[in-house]
Amino acid sequence: ADIKSQMPNAQCVVTSMNVTTNLIVNREAPPFDNPDLRRAVALLRRGGDPLWEARTRNHRYAIYAMLGQAAHADRDLAVVAALYTAAGQELEAAMAMHTRGFVAFQAGDLPMALRLRDEVAARYAALSTVMPDLSIDRCAVLLAAGLDAEAFAEMRDAVEKLDSVPLSATK
């Protein structure tokens, strides 16, 4: 509804994938055809600003993901994670890897989604960071793979772990 009020000529199509709601966008219209992000990434890379390159790629991945270009989205997120790791931004690197798992899941690559979830869990644990969303995401992948018992065990373990950890009001 908000899109329609801002752009009355927009055509919005909502489709269900049994996981999240996806919006099909017009890849020939702004902001999705905007070459500025491509140019910005190139300039930041040449200029030697890895943090801003990572941030820019992080925004660009979202556009690729919305366009259904999972390989491009994954490539940007892999670079984002590497740039953040090299800059000592380990939490941001872990979050980029977490998002790579989401992209793999949306693309239907369940083995990759689970592998990335496991890698991210190790990264978060090394940072003593509790991320409840990771268990929810892992459970969704397990359910999509038809692994109901494993999904139930994941949620049971997550609830037990979370009961012993103070969390913010938003989690």
Q: Please indicate the percent range of residues in DSSP E strands (runs of 2 or more).
A: under 5%
Query: Class by helix and strand content?
Result: mainly alpha
- The strand line-up of the biggest sheet is 1-2
* Straight-line distance between termini: 27 Å
Strand count, sense and barrel status of the largest sheet are: 2 strands, antiparallel
Radius of gyration of CA atoms, rounded to a whole number: 18 Å
> What's the multimeric state?
single chain
Q: For the residues shown, what is the average pLDDT?
A: 79
Low-confidence stretches: 14-25
Shape: globular
Question: What is the β-strand count?
Answer: 2
Fold blueprint:
Elements (H helix, E strand, L loop, with lengths): L1 H5 L6 E4 L4 E4 L11 H12 L2 H17 L3 H17 L3 H17 L3 H17 L5 H13 L3 H16 L8
Antiparallel strand pairs: 1-2
Describe this structure in words.
The protein is built from 8 helices and 2 strands; from the N terminus they run H-E-E-H-H-H-H-H-H-H. Mean pLDDT is 79; it is low at 14-25. Helix 2 runs antiparallel to helix 3 (50-66), helix 5 (90-106) runs antiparallel to helix 6 and helix 6 (110-126) runs antiparallel to helix 7. By secondary structure, it is mainly α. The longest helix has 17 residues, at 50-66. The protein has a two-stranded antiparallel ribbon. The protein has helices spanning 2-6, 36-47, 50-66, 70-86, 90-106, 110-126, 132-144, 148-163, and strands at 13-16, 21-24.
